[in-house]
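Sample A.
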Amino acid sequence: RRLYFDTHALVCLFEENGFTTQQSEVIVSALVKIMNTNLDMIYKDMVTKVQQEIALQQVMSHIGGVKKDMIILEKSEFSALRSENEKIKLELQQIKKQVMDEITKVRADNKLNLNLEKSRVKELHAQQDRALTQTDRKIDTEVADLKTMLETHKLDNIKYLAGSVFTCLTVALGFYRLWI
């Protein structure tokens, strides 16, 4: 191990300050032991450059594997989503076609029903018009019959009245002759 200070210079410094050579060497030896112990403890927690590079390579390899897995997963998920999307599109098109067919059927049924109702209403109006015309004709016929009957009774009454007047005149003339 390298020491990053000069131990001999430290011994000389202690000797200059009143320590004996033996005392200075013991102090420096104790300092070296303390530093070595500290360094051992520090080295236990530290990783060597080779170990760090191996760990880095392992991490990079693991990241590469995860990246490949992610790409494969992304592609498979994307293709699954794409196929699901295509299925949904096809289903939507089929549903849209069915809805359009149903709308067409409903429209056709409604038009047919509307035309049937129109023709029924027209037929009903025609029947009502015929019935009204027949009723008008019957009324006209009955009125004409009543007028004819009234005229007939009128003529009969005029005949009876004329006959009665002539009879009364004849009787009155007969009495007049008899009295004259």
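Sample B, a different protein:
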Amino acid sequence: NIAMAAQMTDSHRRFLQILMSHGIMEGSEARKLHRHCCEIHKVYYAHDKLDDFINTINVHLQPLFLGVECSRESLDWAEPVVNLAETEITKMASDYAENELELFRKTMDLIILSENGFASSTEILNFADQLKTKKMKKKEAEQVLKLFVEDKWLSEKNGEYTLHTRCIMEMEQYILSNYQGVARKCNICHSLAIQSQVCETCGIGMHLPCVGKYFKAQTEPHCPHCNDFWPHEIP
């Protein structure tokens, strides 16, 4: 219904409908979907025009306070439609108990304040019996972590947890407000950057992939904001 109301072209409408049914979609799959939608509706397709294609969808969705967003923090993901009018952690209050939300906040602290953007299951579970709202047994905490992964707030691999793309996108304002000095907007793509390089002179930050792309053709890298020498290793 949203897609119909937005009066988009058939190719844009099909892309949005499939994306909404899938939820989070990897960038490679989003590009395949873009090509499929263009070809099936016989419209011009260019492999490097996915961003423009999504921007066109967002123009139509803006009056509905909705939008398709792509995360640069996770490098290669396309985000599902999200309600841009509700992006705070309070959205989770109806789905989780108070002690579960407290465990989630502590997990976010560990991840965002870490050097590599990850927190081990051991680190997280150590908080289970220290919660102020209501203590958890470790087995119970393990189930809660599993639920956070299933609901796409966290991602897990080999016992290491990080923020899922959904969390990065929907909690952007919460993260920027509560982790000032650590989280910032990328100066290049203007999306949330948690793991980034920061200019030592003016303080602007850039995602690592944005750093690599921006300085790729430069023999001597200089900050895009203040033009001082960029002292960090280029990815």
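Observation for Sample B: DSSP finds ten helices and eleven strands in the chain.
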